Amino acid sequence: MNPKMLSMNIGTALAGLALALVPLTPASAARLGNATVLNAASGVTIQVNPVDKVMSDGQTVRFWVFCAGGGGGGGMMGGGGGCYPSGPTLELGVGQQLNVSLNIMMAPQENAPYNGHTIHWHGLDVAQSEDGVPETGASVLGDNYSFSVDSRYVGSHMYHCHVHTVKHLEMGMYAPLVVKSVNNAGAFVDVINSGGPAYDYEWNLMYSSVDPAYHTAVGDSTTFADYNPKYFLINGNEGRSMTAPAETVTAAPGKKVAIRLFGIMSVNSSFEIKNASGSSQSFTVYNKDGYKLPSTQTLTKLDLTPGQTADVMLTLPSTTGSWYPQVTFKNLRNGGSYSGGTVYTRLNF
Amino acid sequence: MTNALALARTSARRLFVALLCLPLFLISAVSQAASYTLYIKAGTHTINGAGGTTLKVWGFTDNPSTGPMVPGPLLESQEGETVTVTVYNQHTLAHNFVVRGVTTDTASIPAGSSKTYSFTTPKAGTYLVSDTLNSNINREMGLHGALVVRAAGGVNKVWTNGPSFDLERVWIVSDMDKPRWNDIAGNGGSVSTGTYKPNYFMMNGLGGHDAMHDPNTVLQGSPGKVGLVRIVNAGQFDQSLHFHANHFRVIDDDGLRLSNPEYGDTINVQAGTTAMVLFPLRSGIYPMHVHSAQLETANGVYLNGVATLLVGQ
């Protein structure tokens, strides 16, 4: 690991430079939402920052979040963006070499044996050396990750820390990772899966759940024996009502929207899209866990469980209006819902 | 002469056919019936490693001179076989024995008595075995296991003319709430079933520290070999099992055979249900673990919950 560590420091500096100079590969579809989006092949440095977030009930919860390194942007300690739970979205073209450095020099962390951090490429079937699992040999002191994937993976995946995941996932160390088709020039082609239909907009919704007790406990604490989520998030925000959605986006009427769902929460969930009067709208599921389904499924409700992703598409009405994509979080014992366990977003058209 | 010759030839052929059939006959004679004797007992079950403990349990065993096994002994058969299971209830409470989706007799076996169940296996697959009485308490206390029904003829197909596999594991995942269920029920008390906060999570009765080294749990083989994993969730919490290294193919969702290949890296196996996946091994060592907070722990100690390894070497 030592040679890697040496190159990491140089790589970190170079990656910051590359980030500033190389714009994202142009794509025809518009990205909805507030997330910072980075091309994972362009040389990205990820750092870990502490962020204190005031929740809807006034309680402050500390998160540890991935940020794009390289200065500027939000976060308590600086960073290039994505400094909230969830972190910056990474996009990777098929066949292109992912080039990501994790720099933990200023990162908040636990004491040994759960010190440090890694990145696990959840859903990308990478070699053991790139898998980010400390128990199978990954460095927890920062690392350079490099691999490529083929067209089977076009769709939604995630990246997250794999150190003491019972705590580190809860702390907010996760973000979307989207694999994209590319054309002969290497530019992203906005299709839902390899050979699949194109879309006009894409929107990432990452679900997470928060038990504040897990945010203060460390090590092998009995706190981690029981999970009592109190807050539910989409893209790092509570959205407890249609009038206070977690995220509001606007697209043109009649257009096709791809919605990517990323389940990093520790409880079960159902996704629905309703109009202002509460009627369910149908959508079509194309991929699960970043792999094309043998046949698409048109549904009005889609269950997503911890660790799963799904890619759905819908066509907006030709007249203006608003829909409310929403997630109801459900407990693992009997699927019962939680108090305040529905998170709303808003899609204007 | 012609007739005599023909007769001799026929006899020889008959003898030849009979000789050919002899080993087949022996195999089929063995495989047409499986017979098990199980004993229901109270005892203890230990989860080793940091965070581990000894739990009061009730369980099935096939050894009259030992304590209960959690999970119970694996029941194995082939498609279309007759399976006979005699259950001796050596515990102080009433229990039953139900193979989910296969047997229908849910009547209790009174304490101190026995019952014999005989059934024909309907189709190749993986089935939850449990005691269904007492508001899930009996199943939670350890009275659970699995019946595996394989394709006829000993072929490495998941079912007759079904997909092939090279190696096989059975993963029975479960959960136990020591303070609120096992300690109470194990001491003869009354469990308040409205609250269930399990603090132990197991694969084949093992915490992750053991399950990551147990040859019957770790999926290990040459890279490229296809592992058939039979997953039984005998617990009360839904479990989402995440496989590193490769996408699996789901071939059976709680008894429903999927003819179109559907792939994933995380499979949700609801409480009390089963699934079967095919997983091609990849060179190296990778984890498989549940992706929900406390389910990865033994009373809060990381990775001593539902976790094992996928080893290609």
What does this structure look like?
The complex is a heterodimer of chains A (349) and B (313). By secondary structure, chain A is mostly beta strands. Chain A folds into 2 domains: 2-191, Cupredoxins -  blue copper proteins (Immunoglobulin-like, Sandwich), CATH 2.60.40; 202-348, Sandwich (Immunoglobulin-like), CATH 2.60.40.420. Chain A has helices at 2-21, 165-168, 212-216; strands at residues 30-32, 37-39, 44-54, 60-68, 89-93, 98-103, 120-122, 143-147, 155-160, 174-182, 188-189, 201-210, 231-234, 248-250, 256-263, 268-275, 283-288, 291-299, 302-304, 309-315, 322-330, 337-344, 346-348. The relative contact order of chain A is 0.14. Chain B is α+β, with helices and mostly antiparallel strands and 313 residues long. Chain B has 2 domains: 34-154, Cupredoxins -  blue copper proteins (Immunoglobulin-like, Sandwich); 167-312, Immunoglobulin-like (Sandwich), CATH 2.60.40. Helices cover 15% and strands 42% of the residues of chain B. Chain B has 4 helices and 21 strands. Chain B has helices at residues 2-31, 137-140, 178-186, 208-211; strands at residues 33-47, 53-61, 75-78, 82-89, 98-99, 114-120, 125-130, 144-150, 167-176, 200-203, 219-221, 226-233, 239-243, 248-253, 256-264, 266-269, 274-280, 284-290, 297-298, 301-302, 307-312. In chain B, the strands form 5 sheets. Chain B has a 6-stranded mixed sheet. Chain B has a 5-stranded mixed sheet with strand order 11-21-18-13-16. A 4-stranded mixed sheet of chain B has the order 2-1-4-6. In chain B, strand 1 (33-47) and strand 2 (53-61) form a beta hairpin. Chain B is globular, with a radius of gyration of 22 Å. The N and C termini of chain B lie far apart (65 Å). The model of chain B is unreliable at 1-31 (pLDDT under 50). The interface between A and B is large, with 45 and 43 residues.
